[in-house]
Structures are given as C-alpha cells and as structure tokens.
Amino acid sequence: MDNPKIFSIQHFCIHDGPGIRSTVFFKGCPLRCVWCQNPESWKKEMEIAFRAHRCLSCGQCAEACPQGLKLPENRPSEACSLCLACVQACPAEALIAMGEACTEADILARLRPEYPNFEATGGGVTFSGGEAGMFPGFLSGLAASLKKEGVHLAMETCGMFDSKNPDTKTLLQHLDLLLFDVKIFDTDLHKRLCGTGNYPIKANLREAAEAMNSGKGPLVWPRLPLVPDITDGEENLSEWAEFLSDLGFREITLLPFHDHGNSKRLWLSEMPKSLPVIRTPDAEDLLRAGSIFEKYGMKAHEALE
Ligand code: SF4
Ligand code: SF4
C-alpha cells in the first residue's frame, strides 16, 4: 500500500492533547458525517481544490494541462492524472493540491524542530485526520520512531479502526493518549447521518477502555461533537453518558460545532454541496449537555476554539 497522504501538519496546537503539540492530519475517513468541517479529509487520494473566488480567468491552467482538460472548473477525476501542472501554473493559488505524499522521514524532519516546544510544555505529536487509524502499518512505524525519540503521542479517532490488525495493536501500544470521538448512539441514525453503522466504534471503545483500565493500553479520553439538533438530543447524550459511565469514564470533552469548513465543500468537485443548516451551540446548549452527563457521574468539559 502507498504511504498515506497528509493534508496538513499544524504546529503550536493546544487542543489536541496536553501541552503544545504538532498535529499531523492524514487524508482518508470511513465516515461521512453530514456536518463534517474537514471534507478534504474524506478521500485517501490527493485532490485538487478550486477556489473560484481567487480565479483571474487567465486560462493558464488549461494551457498547462497535458490532458487538454477544460479548466479550471471542468476537471473530471477519471481524466486527470494529478500531474499538478495546473496547480503550478495558477498565478492566483486558485487551484491547490490537497494531500501530500510523505515518507516517514519527511514527517519526522518536519516534527523534530518542534521537540523543544514539546519538552518545555509536556506536549507532543497528535495523529489526526480523517481517520489516522486507517493506516496502521505506516502509523505504527512512525509511532515507533517518535517514541524512540521520547515524544508523547496521541491519536484522534472516530473509532473506525481494525482492532484485530497486528499493526493497530502495535500502534495502540505506542500511544500515550487516544482521543476517542463518539457521535450518534443509535445505529440506524448513525448510518443515516455518518454513512456507516457504529457497531465497530462501540466495540473498539469498549476494548480500549478495558485495556486502559487494566493498564495495558493508552489513556482513553472520550469526546463528543456537540451538533445542535443532530448529536445534542437528550436521548443521544443520555445513551452515550450511560455507555461511557458503565465503561468507567468520568470525564468527556464536548466539541462545539462550528461552520468554518463550509466553503471547502464548494472547492472540491466530488463533494455534496448542500449542507444542512446547523447553528453553533450556545452556552445554554453546553450547560444542558453537561448536566445530562452529570446525571451519570461524568464531568463534561468544553473544548475551546
Ligand atoms: S492535475 Fe494535470 S491532468 Fe489534472 S487537471 Fe491539472 S494539469 Fe490537468
Ligand atoms: S490559472 Fe488559476 S487564476 Fe488562471 S484561470 Fe486557472 S484557476 Fe483561474
């Protein structure tokens, strides 16, 4: 299998685990949540995004295209060889490549200059996505190298990983922290709004909690994106609170929905453009959600932007 593509490495992150962290975003996700704000993470493959508001209509992209495609807007993926000639020719950065092929050595070279920040603040590296757990072979190797260099390691997951894969087991052994996102408890509703059933998510969460509780796995920290009228219903929150509390969790982080990524759907050619209108949760929504977790003996924290 080719190395996974990454769509960003962000430094100085303070919400993806303890201390100052560098977060590596891998491209590819098994879920299709209707509220997703990182649609560029869905496909594993590199994509070319077109930001129409920057386009000068100069035609240089079409001139550069060896396939003779009518650019910039008409870019059928079957005909495009992803040679990136159009991206390089565009003087306005209206066309941009999303997804970069990186080796383990490339990623390590970009992370090593940040080690002093990690040491000074108790930070480290967080694998994110998309779903980084889709690439256990690559990730377990990268995690082993980072661990050898004394780096604290976290991974954000939607829970859809293959826990039976030996590389996944190795990866989990290297992690210090697993930030485990849960969304919709009802399986049919999860299928409708996130694209798949949620049985593997619940099974993996249970397994990860048991490993943590027996001292054989990383610290697991549950999080829930608070999406008004989708994940924030009393029934959904109560069901998750009961499930998590039974597994021994006493804390959860609520991730308030924001709509910062809506425009990115317009940039990507094979993306549903219609989005449900979703408001940003307010303080009252957060208090109400927190009080539901409290009933089950859990404290809910709010993630800050
Ligand atoms: S990536 Fe290459 S083949 Fe694809 S549209 Fe751009 S120039 Fe044409
Ligand atoms: S090269 Fe860039 S600015 Fe010019 S037409 Fe193509 S996308 Fe627009």
UniProtKB/TrEMBL annotation:
Radical SAM core domain location: 15-299
GO molecular function: 4 iron, 4 sulfur cluster binding; metal ion binding; oxidoreductase activity
Pfam families: Fer4_12
Keywords from the named record: 4Fe-4S, Iron, Iron-sulfur, Metal-binding, Oxidoreductase, S-adenosyl-L-methionine
Record-annotated 4Fe-4S ferredoxin-type domain positions: 46-75, 77-101
InterPro entries found in the cross-reference section: 4Fe4S_Fe-S-bd (IPR017896), 4Fe4S_Fe_S_CS (IPR017900), Aldolase_TIM (IPR013785), BssD/PflA/YjjW (IPR040074), Organic_radical-activating (IPR034457), Organic_radical_activase (IPR012839), Radical_activat_CS (IPR001989), rSAM (IPR007197)
Cofactor dependency: [4Fe-4S] cluster
Subunit (UniProt): Monomer.
Family: Belongs to the organic radical-activating enzymes family.
PANTHER family linked to this entry: PYRUVATE FORMATE-LYASE 2-ACTIVATING ENZYME, PYRUVATE FORMATE-LYASE-ACTIVATING ENZYME
Classification via NCBIfam families: PFLE_PFLC
Protein name: Glycyl-radical enzyme activating protein
